[in-house]
Write a structure and sequence with these properties.
89 residues, mainly alpha, 2 helices
Length: 89
């Protein structure tokens, strides 16, 4: 009888450990899902900025505005590359 109780207790501990591991994995998955959604939103935002930049290009009046727009476009493209790289990981 004692051997049976030890065996049952051992199995309970194993089950508890597995449940704990499952809960940790569940939390990690939920966090990854949140991160992915945030990255996707950031990518959408950067794409909107690129569209805005392309519209602004039509109304450039001087070299200073052109340089500022090119600088803004470079930053947005770099952000997009970074977000996409992280999303692929």
């Amino acid at each position: 009888m004692k051997i049976f109780k030890k065996s049952v207790n051992q199995k309970k501990k194993e089950i508890d450990n597995l449940i704990s591991k499952i809960n940790i994995l569940k939390s990690e998955i939920e966090e990854n899902i949140k991160t992915k959604k945030n990255l996707e939103e950031n990518i959408k935002s950067q794409n909107r900025k690129l569209k805005d930049i392309s519209y602004k290009k039509n109304s450039i009046r001087n070299e200073k505005e052109l340089k500022a727009l090119i600088s803004e476009e470079t930053v947005v493209k770099d952000n997009l590359k970074n977000f996409i790289t992280v999303l692929k990981e």
